[in-house]
Amino acid sequence: MSKFLYRSYVAMGDSLTEGLGDAGFDNDRRDKGWADRLATLLAREAQAAGHSFDFANLALRGSNSLHILTAQLERALELEPDLVTIMTGANDLSWLPWRKKAIGPLLRGALARLYDVGAHVVLINTVRPAHTSLAKLMIGRSRQMSNIIEGIGSEFGAPVVDVHSMREFERLDYWASDLVHFSTNGHVRVTNEVAAELGLSERDETPRLTGRLRLGPLSFLTWLGRDVFPFWSRKVRGVTSGFGRTSKHCGFERLAEPALIAKEHGRAQVTAPVEVAVTEPVGV
Prior knowledge:
This protein is α/β, with parallel strands linked by helices and 284 residues long. It has a single domain (8-256), classed as SGNH hydrolase (Rossmann fold), CATH 3.40.50.1110. The protein has helices at 15-18, 34-48, 65-79, 96-116, 139-156, 184-198, 217-237, and strands spanning 8-13, 53-57, 83-87, 120-124, 160-161, 253-256.
């Protein structure tokens, strides 16, 4: 499969893209989550071809489509990356009947402007929440949101990674203990699906971890008190989980330098780029 050799990548999104739920995130959020895992794969390919690679994860927990497709977008445009991923919509599901008309124009505008700076854009639709009885109440809205994203992606010829159809997310072991964010299993699954869409040769080989397969009465009550009630309390107060926080990166972080070969005549030489079939970014 032909592909574009990416040298820079910006991730836009909410907590799912920030990486919440991945193993060790609470101690150190760097290098955690599907977007950071994807950036590692992209960096390896760029370095193998003799190029540097830069990455910025602008995603922030609690962000809705308005924030992602305005504030995060403006920063992404300033960085002028080769590749941008946009995963949005999860924090709009509760208010979808009122926001539905605004999300389409925002996403269309974001795509048009990103294409203007030469970025290749990959969209990720909305996961189907079928892992708990309460989550299932949002299945209809998640399908509506996914339809919006897929329709606009089709208009622009932008690839859409279909996480909504991934049956693994019906399993509890693909969700973190809060049952809202992906577990490591979930993050790895999304990483590899986006990698396949991009035609990358490498995959995240993290072994699937054994996790909770059922939610008993006691753990269900614990979950309500620890995660559900605080979530709705913030909703009522109009406060997001990202209040007072910043994204992982405000600008590019260098993940890879051109690979060096043995010193020759006292001077390190940079390896020559590997031969790759290159296509122009979609929409350019």
